[in-house]
């Protein structure tokens, strides 16, 4: 076990080095610097060449990209992700600010997905072949193919434009309209109202995918000999389904849970962009547009670590639920 | 005894039995037809016309600017054909596209005799002259979408063609040779999996001076091969010790021949399934990029860029509805084809049906 973890750790560090080096090189190759990208929009904030040169030196933009990468890497090993150039704040502070809103959406979505997908998948396998199961499966299939950004726009039109002025109206974007001084309960209710549409958009695709996944795995397990044996010895249909079949579909499910980890904190760029939700995905998008190298790098590092951790978690969960599999 | 049916004939027989999968195939066929005939369905240039005693097909200009006959540029048509043809050669005749609307500009008043100007701003609801309405600039949405079909189809085929080639090559080499080659290719696959696709695409589009739709396709293809590589590797690991491979090796076949002629055809069916699903996701990635405003610049209008226009004014529901449904149906069709393929070629699922 220890050697397995050590090997994975070393390989993971190697992977991280390659990815961050590649992304840093790419980011620096984009035309413009954080200074020019920021000034471009507002002519009154144009700096004279000397000031620009001074700022470039301060931020290390006058050095070639590999020197900048080495400097960034050195700081990271000391636990310092650097300061955002365009926002004048430490990257860790920025991430800490944005992680809560993202988690609010993706955590709620993930909870909803598993609360609904597992019963739905089991229901579909129990009623396999009946008319209501076929209708549910078809609906799930249609939902699975429905693009999120199209759904988001449809929902915005229905709930923010057509239902404007009714009790069903939902806010178009943002996280809250109330000032920070408003009472706690009113603010929580307002944030919840703002979160409904993004949560729905983030939930439905995975919900459809996961329940179809569970159903497919159940279909596979239900064909096995031990299920026939269980039925033959007189176990009831629900007991066969839960006790004998479902337990054996936990293995692929474990992989799925592990792989959903990066999305939980990474958020969705498109959903956060449509609803202008102040989360990680939007921060990523903005930092690319502003050429804010420290923020791009901090987020890339975080996403890559999460992806690798998710894969590791999937492997470990796999061993946990299936004693036949061992990490050695 | 007669020859038994081959694997692919058998798979096709099974595929045909699924009405939804067949409908999806028919839908993709329809899209191909629309893309090929786009200038004849919606446009302002004649499909065929006789001008000063010669036959021309100005509609080809929609495929490539240079294919528009030079005589019309010389005679100062400036893209408006109906009036100019009549004025400059009273003898001329022309076969017009089904819908007289242009995907790149608004049709002006009386450009087509008796036809009013396209409504601009937010007044262009769907009507008889503008089937799917018009956008803020007054450009006909139906024409935009008919011409955008090409982009939707190309994105799927080209990017998955690239991803399939890379994925099959990397997976085949890793799975066949094993050892350190395998650990190298597996590491590379893992690294590409970890790179955030969006950063890559946005960065490369920013770096390129003139990004075109082909660059977007190339990037989607260059990042979307990891799943295919993993599956191919698994198939090659499974098949490389099979008897028929050993027989081929004994007969003196080299590794390249064994990989391409013997193993690949036998492992192709399960690899085709993720490629089909990949087409669906490539179309999704492209349209969401266009939707975010990072799509190909005009004139190659894609369905996602129509959606992007809708963001500034949500009361123009037709800018969301028609392209949204088109993207949805296309993605659904490819997913249905992928699933049909899976059911038709997976022997384990076949046994279960009996």
Describe the structure.
The complex is a heterodimer of chains A (328) and B (354). Chain A has 328 residues and is an all-alpha fold. Chain A has helices at residues 2-29, 34-39, 49-58, 65-77, 91-126, 131-145, 148-162, 184-221, 225-232, 237-245, 250-259, 261-266, 269-274, 280-289, 293-321. In chain A, helix 5 (91-126) packs across helix 8 (184-221), helix 6 packs across helix 8 and helix 14 (280-289) runs antiparallel to helix 15 (293-321). Chain A is flat, with a radius of gyration of 25 Å. The termini of chain A are close together. The mean pLDDT of chain A is 83. With 354 residues, chain B is mainly alpha-helical. Chain B has helices at residues 7-16, 19-41, 70-74, 82-88, 141-177, 179-194, 197-207, 213-223, 226-239, 243-250, 255-291, 303-311, 318-345, 347-353, and strands at residues 42-43, 48-51, 54-56, 93-95, 99-100. In chain B, strands 3-2-4 form a 3-stranded antiparallel sheet, with no helix packed on it. Chain B has a two-stranded parallel ribbon with strand order 1-5. Chain B is elongated, with a radius of gyration of 25 Å. The model of chain B has no long low-confidence stretch (mean pLDDT 83). Chain A binds chain B through residues 11, 14-15, 18-19, 22-23, 26-27, 29-31, 141-142, 144-147, 149-150, 153-154, 156-157, 160-161, 172, 219-220, 223, 269-270, 273-274, 284-285, 288, 296, 300, 303-304, 307-308, 311, and chain B through 187, 190-191, 193-196, 198-200, 202-204, 206-207, 280, 284, 287-288, 291-292, 307, 310-311, 314-315, 317, 320-321, 324, 327-328, 331-332, 335-336, 348, 352.
